[in-house]
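> @MW can you paste both from yesterday?
MW: sure, first one:
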Amino acid sequence: MISINEAISIEDYNVIERLGNIIWREHYIPIVGEAQIDYMLKKFQSANAIANQVASGYSYFLLYYDMIPVGYIAIKKHVDTLFLSKIYVLSGYRGKKIGKTALEFIEVKAKNQRLKTITLTVNKNNRNAINAYKKLGFDNLGSIVTDIGEGFVMDDYKMVKTL
């Protein structure tokens, strides 16, 4: 059974930090390298960084499969769109409709706020995610390169789904 709960405590943020450390290292080191992942985990996915993001308007949610935390999402409302900042699931739990359930949850959140679109960015070399987003109705709006400091950049595509 899949469930989604809002992350509201430092304990929740610590769980997300641990999940991020596993998922990001496994999935993204082959794409962007270990040095960039070390930097990004510290800057964006430490419990303190998550707490700061929540204080600035982001909402984090833990994804559970049979009551086991197996992933997480982060969203933030922008003017007329809901920005999907993060959606990650442990590799051993992929293919169990957790990501699809999470995206349906996000759509409901966006519609309840009367938002017109959901936007996200995805690494240009993350082919599986790009294909999954396309299947779920997202369109590729083109390239976006973001300087994240320390000489690192995120080389992404911006994608949007109209609701």
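MW: second:
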Amino acid sequence: MNKVQIIESMAVAADIGYADAERVLESMICRVIEAVSANEQVRIGGLGSFSQSVRSARIGRNPATGAPLKIAASKSIQFRAGEAFKRQINQP
């Protein structure tokens, strides 16, 4: 399912127009990005939580030559599925 399909599905399920559903989804995405960027955890009941994690700098290896490389520290995003989501996925 892609973004357009999600918007269409939301519009039908909520009995609202496509443009309204698109604004709601865009707003939600922006709020999640802003909060996680500010190092806040975002919890959405029934779905899961988004949080920021930090990867420290480390030494890696070039797979072709085996030469050591310095890998810079970076931030990444973690998503942890909620229990209801996990139960739904694991139903036979």
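> thanks! The chain has three helices and five strands.
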